[in-house]
Design brief:
The protein is an all-alpha fold and about 450 residues long. About 70% of the residues lie in helices and about 0% in strands. Strand 1 and strand 2 form a beta hairpin.
């Protein structure tokens, strides 16, 4: 782990003129990605690694590998839009490596205060990516939405963390829990419920749960391909990771509002799945589908069962790879048509049948078809939701059906129909595009062969 951090720091500090730094950082991130995969697949992964300031267990290690992997794919996806056009190449690669380092320190943090600091600092490089390499002037509004939503929800959490740490004298998220230390503030039941909302508020916005999700479609639409990939691939997983850590640290159970949130998350996922069907912007549709998948993940966490948490981890891994691949495809289609409108880019099957095959493969993965780990995660969610409430099987079934509906809608609208209304001269698909899509598709389907990555994580 220390070697991976040192490798990332060296790639951040390197600076040269021209594209030399771009390739240096790309190969450094590539080396780190493959080393992290080797560490995850080693036999010592689930032997708990712990020090006074850093930890790695069955929850943080898969997300750490996902961070390195998505960072590599971000560099590959930005070859044409950033490197070939020469748009502040060194600054862009530095933002990617700083974001990778920040996310890595977030997943490895053992102290709850340092975890909060790195959790919030990850917004800064993301905001720079949106403002510096976004597509339209509305990126300023998108960045403002993202900062206001996240900061307004996370500042109460900071005050609570500092207060609880002062009372209980416990800041380590592994050594002990603070349920006894915060018992004095549970004077009445309504204060207990407010405590629950404050603890989880910052992570529910970052997730995001329905009703506090409006910043995500705006950020996705205005962000460059690298910003969209890291938003969907990793930053949304910070919300799920923080939820599970807070459940462990504060021992959150027996709250009335958790039952309401459980119901709200599932029915909110149904509503966002319906919203997907009426979208006309390609990236906005993918963003709303992310909200629906993360609603399922939230239901697994709130069930407070081992099956639910394992299903949530597998869904985070599956969604990170699948939605990042869909956004990379959306960016490639945008480069060909210079439009994100579904009506403008229909009929691409006539011009790029090779790309249509990849659209089909990723849309099938998005609707949880075998052999992807999306299917395993949804199947594992069924018992955890059944144990919590049998009535919630209705929205769960609706979400599974609607995910198939909007995935097939996405494929048919973009690939079938008449010839595209506006097409620009373009060459055939390059090898780098094939490599990028293959590195997305292979892990999400072949990770089922190593299902103990998430199934052997016993809570």
């Amino acid at each position: 782990m220390l070697g991976l951090i040192l490798l990332n720091v060296i790639s951040v500090l390197s600076w040269e003129s021209g594209v030399g730094t771009w390739y240096l950082r790309m190969w450094s991130i590539s080396l780190g990605a493959f080393l992290s995969v080797f560490v995850m697949y080693s036999s010592s992964l689930y032997k708990f690694f712990y020090s006074s300031w850093m930890m790695a267990d069955g929850l943080s290690c898969p997300l750490l590998v996902l961070t390195w992997w998505i960072s590599l794919l971000m560099i590959l996806a930005s070859q044409f839009s950033v490197k070939y056009k020469g748009i502040k190449v060194n600054l862009f690669s530095m933002c990617v490596t700083i974001l990778n380092l920040t996310l890595m320190l977030t997943f490895l943090s053992c102290n709850i205060i340092s975890f909060y600091v790195f959790f919030e600092f990850s917004l800064v490089p993301t905001l720079v990516l949106i403002l510096g390499w976004g597509y339209q002037p509305e990126r300023l509004q998108a960045g403002l939405y993202m900062m206001i939503y996240t900061i307004s929800a996370s500042l109460p959490l900071l005050a609570l963390i500092l207060g609880v740490s002062e009372m209980s004298m416990i800041t380590n998220m592994v050594i002990g829990h603070v349920s006894s230390g915060v018992g004095v503030i549970f004077i009445t039941s309504w204060i207990k419920e407010i405590f629950y909302v404050v603890v989880l508020g910052a992570f529910l916005v970052k997730l995001p749960v329905f009703s506090v999700h409006l910043w995500l479609p705006k950020a996705h639409v205005e962000a460059p391909v690298a910003g969209s990939m890291v938003l969907a691939g990793v930053l949304l997983k910070l919300g799920g990771y923080g939820l599970i850590r807070m459940y462990e640290f504060f021992m959150l159970k027996g709250f009335f509002i958790s039952d309401l949130l459980f119901c709200f998350s599932l029915w909110g996922g149904v509503l966002t799945s319906m919203i997907c069907i009426r979208q006309v912007d390609l990236k906005s549709l993918i963003a709303y589908s992310s909200v629906g998948h993360m609603s399922l993940m939230l239901a697994g966490v709130i069930s407070n069962t081992s099956w639910g948490w394992q299903a949530s981890l597998s869904m985070m891994l599956a969604h990170g790879l699948c939605s990042s691949g869909l956004l990379a495809l959306a960016n490639y289609s945008y480069e060909k048509t210079h439009s994100r409108s579904l009506m403008m880019m229909k009929g691409m099957l006539m011009y790029l049948p090779f790309l249509a095959m990849w659209w089909f493969l990723f849309c099938v993965v998005n609707m949880a078809a075998p052999p992807s780990i999306n299917l395993i995660s949804e199947i594992m969610l069924f018992p955890s939701i059944m144990f919590h409430s049998m009535k919630m099987l209705v929205p769960l079934g609706l979400m599974s059906f609607l995910s198939a509906v909007y995935s097939l809608f996405l494929y048919t609208v973009t690939q079938h129909g008449g010839s595209p209304k506006f097409t620009y001269p373009f060459s055939t698909v390059k090898g780098s595009t094939f490599t990028l899509l293959m590195l997305h598709w292979v892990p999400v389907n072949f990770l089922i062969l190593k299902s103990d990555v998430f199934c052997m994580w016993i809570v």
